[in-house]
């Protein structure tokens, strides 16, 4: 089966949790999954995977988290042609730019040559039942694209 690599940034644990939900579903579907915190890997590590997923939160009023900025900038220089990508994230609807980092990563993946495997999933704070269903559907769609 495919190797899926999930790279996440999480301050409160909410984004790590949604990364784990997707990881568990992909494993249930028979794929190998590696989940890494963004400061421990390089964007080029996605070259070794079949499926590339970023899970990020949005900080404050629409900012990328400081710890994932280098990964984000390096991603544009990676050739992921033939790979499937997806983006998930958490945010807070209190802010004007809810989950803006998810949108920014989706655009950045567009520069890599990778194919979008599923629509992004945005979670308000912590994942609830409906969010878990959406995240599992996200994983199923990405797996089906592979």
UniProtKB/TrEMBL annotation:
State whether keyword Electron transport applies: yes
The UniProt entry, under Gene3D superfamilies, shows: 3.40.50.360
- Family per record: Belongs to the flavodoxin family.
Protein's name according to its UniProt entry: Flavodoxin
* Flavodoxin-like domain: residues covered: 4-143
Instruction: Tell me the function of this protein.
Output: Low-potential electron donor to a number of redox enzymes.
Cofactor(s) the protein requires to work: FMN
* A Pfam family of this chain: Flavodoxin_1
Keyword Transport in record: yes
Which InterPro entries does the record match to this protein? Answer: Flav_short, Flavdoxin-like, Flavodoxin, Flavodoxin/NO_synth, Flavodoxin_CS, Flavoprotein-like_sf
**What sections of the sequence does the record tag as coiled-coil?**
none
Q: What is the lineage of its organism?
A: Bacteria, Bacillati, Bacillota, Bacilli, Lactobacillales
Arranged from A to Z, the UniProt key words for this protein are: Electron transport, Flavoprotein, FMN, Transport
